[in-house]
Amino acid sequence: MNREEVFEKLSEIMIEYIPELNGVTFTMEDSLHELGANSVDRMDIIVDIMEELGVKVSITKFANAKNIKEIIDILCEEYV
Amino acid sequence: MKKENSKRVFVSGMGCVNSIAESAAEFEQALREGRQGIDFYKESKQKGPIKIGAEIRNFSLNKRIDDYSLKENVPQTILNKARKVARRSPFVIQTAVAAVLEAYVQADLFQKQVSGERIGIIVAGNNLTNVVKNAYMDKCKNDLEYMSPSYALQFMDTDHIGTLSEIFGIFGEGCTIGGASASGNVGIIKAYEMLQLEIADICIVVGAMAELSDAEMYGFYNVGALGGRRFGTEPQKACRPFDMEHEGFIYGQGCGCFILESQESIAKRNAGILAEIMGGAILLDGNRLSNPSVQGEARVMELVLDRCGLVPEDIDYINTHGTSSPLGDETELKAIKQVWKDQVKNVWINSTKGLIGHCFYAAGVMEAIASIIQMKEGFLHPNKNLDHPISKGFRFVGNDREEKQIDIAMSNSFGFGGINTSIVLKYCSQYKSE
């Protein structure tokens, strides 16, 4: 999967957790928090995308990820 | 002996969801008609040992919130919060949100507000998350490393507390409490005590819905507590409290909410009153097993009467624990006879479980709601399937409702592990109708 595909998959998961995002345009520069995810939503979303990709990274690695781009960076480091 | 200086505590709001009603308002009509909620289970439960029970059907929190949106009595901010916070909540929590919403509206708590710190909450029930846990384990069984972070919040009963306090702005004392099948009464009694101590002016009591999985059903079945074998193909006949052909409890789903409020707070807010809680009592048998005790049940009824400054003759009506289990029903009648002696022929008796099954943790609250509805409206709901009572000399309500004005009611709940509880409610004529 390339970064665009990861972003697409992540977007699908985000809309599951935050239905208000359906139809809203957002980019990799946006942060989950700004888009309406509370702290647990954010973790749920990240664990879900990891499962989707078959990636296992400690959740603490994502603590400083400021936006979707940085989350995807961390995921793609691990994703083969 | 009634304690001097004991504060008067009233019920200012009620709400519920169960197998025969989606609200306390609907529950009144259902009780009046003697509607029964026991039926064949929806498919997903068919793996259990018994195929019948009283399930909640057609309940949707979103729909309920939409209905409230059309009326003016609930602020939009609360409804939006309810939608958002409870969106991913397990079904049992969603029923609690609905029940609390209804109770808040009735108590006029959105309009006639109290500081959030003076409102407490007790959620009665344990192991509220078994089904949730099973669902997560099914999802992650191949790889627990992908366990949902939400599970850390959702596996604890206190998810009820977090959710409800956030939606309704409750900042006072809050906790969960357990008493097996007596949880509801235990919650009411502890809330009553919270108000006595002036820790809060208002306490929201939620009798939480018990969502039992197949494991619990088989456990109850194998310990001989679960009924529904003899009348397995005739669900409406299966729940028969105090009848000769009773054989065990029938599972019922429901969530009830009671709002208890101090007299001072009611006066300050000029709020309506539904009933007074005169008092309650909890006593243990010192017995780990499931068998009830005549002595324990009799003793707790005597104790609550004493605390309320009453004698048995003052009680017009008992909403029994009455589960339809042979030993339970017999024990409770013997205990009532022990306390009331010759007067037993004067006190009306029914069992709400005959209509809505055994709601477990919610039962005490649900049955207190049923008692108050009956007191307010001047009737007693029928005893379903009471064709041949196991014992003579008791004043059972028959298969049709009785038109009767009750002044003081007692409601009993008894739980496995020797937990005996009883509360006393008094009719109050000053209530606002919706």
TrEMBL record, chain A:
Domain Carrier: 4-79
Matches recorded under InterPro entries: ACP-like_sf (IPR036736), PP-bd_ACP (IPR009081)
Gene3D superfamilies in the record: ACP-like (1.10.1200.10)
Protein's name according to its UniProt entry: Acyl carrier protein
Automatic annotation (TrEMBL), chain B:
Superkingdom to which the source organism belongs: Bacteria
Record NCBIfam families: PRK07103.1
UniProt GO molecular function: 3-oxoacyl-[acyl-carrier-protein] synthase activity
Descriptive protein name: Malonyl-ACP decarboxylase
Pfam family, any one: ketoacyl-synt
InterPro entries recorded: Beta-ketoacyl_synthase, Ketoacyl_synth_C, Ketoacyl_synth_N, PKS_Beta-ketoAc_synthase_dom, Thiolase-like
Annotated source species: Lachnotalea glycerini
Family the UniProt entry places it in: Belongs to the thiolase-like superfamily. Beta-ketoacyl-ACP synthases family.
Lineage: Bacteria, Bacillati, Bacillota, Clostridia, Lachnospirales
Presence of keyword Transferase: yes
Domain Ketosynthase family 3 (KS3): 6-427
Keywords: Transferase
PROSITE patterns with a match to the protein in the record: KS3_2
GO cellular component: cytosol
GO biological process terms held by the UniProt record: fatty acid biosynthetic process
